[in-house]
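Tokenised fold entry reproduced for absentees:

. . .
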Amino acid sequence: MSLTAVATAAPPDDLESAVVEVVVPVYNEERILEASVRRLRRYLNTRFPLRASIVIADNASVDSTWAVAERLGADLPGVQAVHLSRKGRGLALRTAWAASRAPVVAYMDVDLSTDLDALLPLVAPLLSGHSHVAIGTRLAPGARVTRSPKREVISRGYNLILRTALGTRVSDAQCGFKALRSDVARELLPLVADDSWFFDSELLVVAERLDCGFTR
């Protein structure tokens, strides 16, 4: 099965001059995709001090997500849409990050559940050279999280298992808010085997074992 990406893109200067590229991986998100991407693009245009692009990475949606993504890529400067023929969040991130020209690559969940004002503190240590990898966490003291008790227990249980089994110090491996220096991403991606939901966790464990600088 071909994994060749099909893309619609903003004018080249909007994408090639980006300092930060934010990837939004999606699967069957036709209901919220447009509102979320327009909100994110508006924030980056008006409140984010660095030039940033958005890549919508559609991993084999079977609803109208790709049609919405194509339209957004055609309508909004600084937005690109990429379609993959096989499902997998990790595959979507791997494909988009490997092709990026921006010095820093990031990703966030399509529901934009993380405060957008946290994006600059996430990427600033990477641009300054202080860190190579930066991750958000919903488990830090003082973090405000709105989700069901069941999801809270599952999340905390998963991260406890990960720390116990793999010896990682990462507090929240599955938080959909991460960033890496692009050169570091290109070194790490070939070492990560999973292309699905475990991609995040494996990436962070590999980065930690290679002693990449972390900002948590």
Remarks:
- Residues 6-215 form a domain with the Spore Coat Polysaccharide Biosynthesis Protein SpsA; Chain A fold (CATH 3.90.550.10).
- The radius of gyration is 16 Å.
- DSSP finds eight helices and eight strands in the chain.
- Confidence is low (pLDDT under 50) at residues 138-147.
